[in-house]
Design goal:
This protein has about 80 residues and is an alpha+beta fold. Helices cover about 20% and strands about 15% of the residues. It has two helices and two strands. The longest helix is centred in the N-terminal third of the chain and has 10 residues, at about 20-25.
Length: about 80
């Protein structure tokens, strides 16, 4: 599936005209991450918006004792 098709399936881009969709696809950067890779840490400046095409992303907070609290589980079609 090409980037345009992938973006068009996302609710945010679903109703874009073809030329606008192509413009969005032209600046999109596909990335793959291995399981358990940290994409970014809370408090860091955000560099991008991430759209999940496949797999799952866990967002979590860690308390002062190092315990993890899951905030959300994101699936294909979600963004963060």
């Amino acid at each position: 599936m090409d980037l345009r098709e992938m973006l068009q399936r996302m609710p945010l881009f679903h109703n874009l005209r073809a030329d606008d969709l192509q413009r969005a696809a032209s600046i999109a950067i596909p990335r793959e991450y291995r399981k358990k890779t940290v994409v970014f840490w809370e408090g860091e400046d955000r560099q991008a918006v991430y759209f999940i095409q496949r797999g799952m992303v866990k967002t979590y907070k860690t308390d002062e004792n190092g315990n993890e609290q899951i905030v959300s589980l994101l699936e294909p079609g979600d963004l963060f």
